[in-house]
């Protein structure tokens, strides 16, 4: 009697859960098709891959492609560019929105506050193709707007996108310019969640606006700053393919080429599938370690869990 | 509160407003510049006389852009991918987020599924294997190569499942006890009460589809299948600087900077940005809520 009942309950709950499994089918099929099967395609990094033969008949070569990768001239430079550019972006990409959020928080006129917000979010929603087109024009050495302005101060025109010393910083500045406004959203939300009584207490203790910012506001924002900084570390090999691809040119390959653009040119332009996949795999593995570590750190430092 | 405002504070507030307005202007200026160029005559634009206001106002560059078959063709491809891509992606995100939002007691397989989805964020096959696989599916030169690979947007699923979990449990339980199916519960109750989160995801999916260009560049062999952003990419970005490889003389540099069809490019850039510019102020209040929900969730 009992067992029959237990069995029906069990079968009922199985029946009740069946729709939940079914709902996941489309997502799982798509992920297998477009994410898990490509992961299996990584085998070509260990093969002397010939497209006509496919990866079942191409010859296995072990680590040869990775050795080739290490011997490539300039690969060290590419790796360095990637880390350097990404690292600068992480630092300034944090500072700028924090500063903007603090300044916005001081504005009392809601009209100004809202208009400024609306405008600084704007670049985030435009693609790097559009911004690339605009920036190439604005940064042009002969009649670009920026060089025009620099001319007022008696400066000679700079070839921003053709000068390999300037180029990495152009990347950092334009990236910060595109994303800082959007980054303020989270910090502004963090600001509103700070307990107002802390400010009252600080005022009672004779703290001015500046002291309140240093002793109440910043500590109040610290958890979210730590969280976003740690999560940002996971992207230290992602220096921004879209941006670099749309702004760089052979003149600045030396300092502007990053792993992703390198893989693109090596793989899809030069058709060096196997070596390009090896470089890509190297990047994926290192990224996996960094992203894993950053999630772990975010959990330890800020109690963050993604789900 | 601010009855006694000190002089220092007043000065700070004025400076602060000026700095912030300057920042906002810096974000807007490049767009105004490109807009001014697009409305100027080509001779004025080539001479570099256009700053923030059109010189010799004319609509000819827009007429030219809109009469170009390549432009209209790619516009159609873009519209198709936005509609199809947003619909498919949103549907998959909604039906995936619902089961994944269940507690482990109610849906024991949940943990396994969550990891199955999450792993794809951590690790990927990379550019070349993904390209090969899509080629093997014979999806090159079809709209499916633009729409399907990114349809399962795991970050959006996470955002939505966290939102689902934040809704009152009692509603779901009551509905299920009353004999409501999961399917009905999802569409009749969960989706309607999740509108703020769904509006955010809708906005990001639309903008993402509209702005994508790289997949078009690698998966479309024939330029007639390019979406608008890919077409723009090949038109605006790659041509001038890339052809000038090697040693640049002063003359080359001048030629590089003075593109003859500067105004046409400007008008096409602006047209490609226009839908986003028009839409986003209206959706701003939604995405602000949604972002905060997604990233600083309690």
UniProtKB/TrEMBL annotation, chain A:
It comes from the Bacteria. It is a multi-pass membrane protein. SUPFAM superfamilies: MetI-like. Keywords: Cell membrane, Membrane, Transmembrane, Transmembrane helix, Transport. Residues 79-294 form the ABC transmembrane type-1 domain. The keyword Transmembrane applies. Its main location: membrane. It is found in: Cell membrane. The keyword Metal-binding does not apply. InterPro entries: MetI-like, MetI-like_sf, UgpAE/MalFG_permease. The chain crosses the membrane at residues 20-46, 78-104, 125-146, 180-199, 220-241, 273-298. Belongs to the binding-protein-dependent transport system permease family. This is ABC transporter permease subunit. It comes from Paenibacillus spongiae. The lineage of its organism: Bacteria, Bacillati, Bacillota, Bacilli, Bacillales.
Automatic annotation (TrEMBL), chain B:
It comes from the Bacteria. The keyword Cell membrane applies. The chain crosses the membrane at residues 71-100, 112-131, 143-164, 185-210, 269-288. It is a multi-pass membrane protein. It is found in: Cell membrane. Keywords: Cell membrane, Membrane, Transmembrane, Transmembrane helix, Transport. Residues 71-280 form the ABC transmembrane type-1 domain. Its main location: membrane. The keyword Cell inner membrane does not apply. PANTHER family: ABC TRANSPORTER PERMEASE PROTEIN MG189-RELATED-RELATED, POLYGALACTURONAN_RHAMNOGALACTURONAN TRANSPORT SYSTEM PERMEASE PROTEIN YTCP. This is Carbohydrate ABC transporter permease. It comes from Paenibacillus spongiae.
